Amino acid sequence: MDAAGAGVSPSISFSEDGDYVAQISGKELAVHLTPTSTDFKEVQVVKLKENSSKFLKFSRSKPVLPSSTHSYGGVSLPERRLLCASDARVSVWQLNSLQLLAEIESIEPKATYVDFGGDENEIIYFHAWNTKVTVFGLDTGRSQVIRAPKFSNTNGFAYRPKTRQLAILLKPDAADLLTIHEFGSYELIGRAILPTVDAQGLKWSPDGRWITVWDTASAGTKVLIFTADGQHFRTYTGLPNSDTSFDLGVRSVEWSTVSKARGASELLAVGKVDGTVDILNTRTFSRSATLSHVFQVDQNSASIWRERVSEDGTLEYAEASGFSAFDANADLSGPPRGVAIMSFSAGGTLLSTVDQTRPNIVWIWELESTPALLSALVHEHTVRQVVWHPTKAQLLITTANTAYSAVRYWSPYSQPLAVRIPIPRTETGKYDTKWLSTDDDDDSRFWFGTPEDYVLGYIEGMDDKPQFHVLNTIRSKLAASASAFAATR
Fold first, then answer.
1. Quick check: 152 and 108 in contact, CB under 8 A?
2. What are the φ/ψ torsions at residue 374 (nearest 5 degrees)?
3. What's residue 43's pLDDT?
4. According to the lineage, what is the superkingdom (predicted)?
5. Is the distance from CB of 323 to CB of 316 less than 8 angstroms?
6. In angstroms, rounded to a whole number, what is the distance separating the alpha carbons of residues 410 and 419?
7. Cβ distance 166 to 115 under 8 Å?
8. Dist. CA 432–CA 21, nearest whole Å
């Protein structure tokens, strides 16, 4: 998984709500159909035609809603599907009985990215060398081609929330190009030649109203805002009248979640290479605040926690004074590498950030009124991942600690915790976590994994002796899955 919690190892994939898990081992594909159930764990295994599968993806968990509603009550769920793609073939499986639904063959080899498109009936396929992208319609048998995509990853394209228009960056010649395509027909509905040196990516706002494109850092601060039909609306270039010779440019951008009060994404965070974050309000896309990853004297009210090994050999957080907490593990030998990790809480009022100058620190900011540092968590190892709960102000953190398999937990209502996970540690330090996304606000279950093992569970005893309660285990060995399945028969 990346810092936001999307993705796992190449041989295993989770559905976005965590309800399904798929694994590939050689020519065997195993699907755990009910891994979150406490009373039944069903695994089905089928044989693939090749043993070189490169992509394993689930279709969306929930249907696309009309813009006039935010409730799933009475809305039928789409049929859940799974794709498995190799260089020669894309296979699509329906999950109810794990039956092969469709195959796409005779395609150009060496795909660079394959996933479901606007819905479960579309496959988006990026060809080698970024020559073109093809969208295959499983229900129609037709295909649509868009030439010269700039990137073959999710930085270069995105589907609009709810209505599913495709926005994509193209590079047909010397200039960057943004195009918008209608869902289904992929008819061109918007086109803009970008005034960028080298556009680095695009993102739809979660409310579907805006598209942002950011330029390479060497061009200085340049963030372009477009309407949903591809019309240029604003360009943010940093503070007015500032000395551009000190502008190191943009590293990343992140939209806030949709506000319940306004039904809109109200903030856009612009992470800079100089280690600051500009907060823009989405009414005017002007700067409302700048966050600096340097502890200030007037931030003494913030709670600073430092990870340490307790007397019994377990990890814990201890409260620390501001300046002393930030003394160690700072990488000040070279130029700052920028703010690479930013993530908003479900309510959009909290923002977590990681500045690569001190990649071991998670900064948590309160944005509801006057932006201020709420808390900082200082770790002994580099932070790999920061993941907010889908509905509550709860945060999970993983670090590259090769000696201790643990998840770090933070909420504004209690002392942060470091909880050991009962799985073998990994020498690579690659620990990943993912909240189980359900409609139950009280659900705090999550997956935690290494390249070899994944477990589902929750933290119990937070006020006394916190422990991880295991509900299910997914091992990388399909033999273990097969024996577990046999035991249920």
1. no
2. -90, -45
3. 87
4. Eukaryota
5. no
6. 11
7. no
8. 15
**pLDDT band at residue 334, thresholds of 50, 70 and 90?**
low
What is each CA distance from 398 to 100, 109, 199, 340, 452, in whole angstroms?
36, 36, 30, 15, 16
Helix (H) or strand (E) holding 486: helix 478-488
Element (H, E) at 318: strand 315-319
* DSSP labels, 423-434: S---TT---EEE
- The residue written with tokens 């606000």 in the block is 441
Q: How confident is the model at residue 3 (pLDDT cuts 50, 70, 90)?
A: very low
CB 223 within 8 A of CB 247: no
- pLDDT, tens only, 418-439: 999 999 888 889 999 999 987 6
User: Are 279 and 290 in contact, with CB atoms under 8 Å apart?
Assistant: yes
Helix (H) or strand (E) run with residue 189 in it: strand 188-193
**How many CB atoms are located within 10 Å of the residue 256 CB?**
25
Cβ atoms of 248 and 260 within 8 Å: the answer is no
Q: Which two tokens stand for residue 393?
A: 């102000």
Which tokens belong to 54? Answer: 């490169």
C-alpha closest to that of 2 among 153, 169, 127: 153
The DSSP code for 118 is S
How far apart CA 468 and CA 291 sit, in angstroms, is 34
DSSP 265: B
DSSP strand E in 33-130: where? 43-47, 55-58, 81-85, 90-94, 99-104, 113-116, 122-126
Give tens-digit pLDDT for 298-309. Answer: 656 789 999 999
Q: Is the pLDDT of residue 125 over 70?
A: yes
- Give the helix, strand, coil percentages of the chain, each rounded to 5: 5, 45, 50
- Rounded to an integer, what distance in angstroms lies between the CA atom of residue 251 and that of residue 266? 21
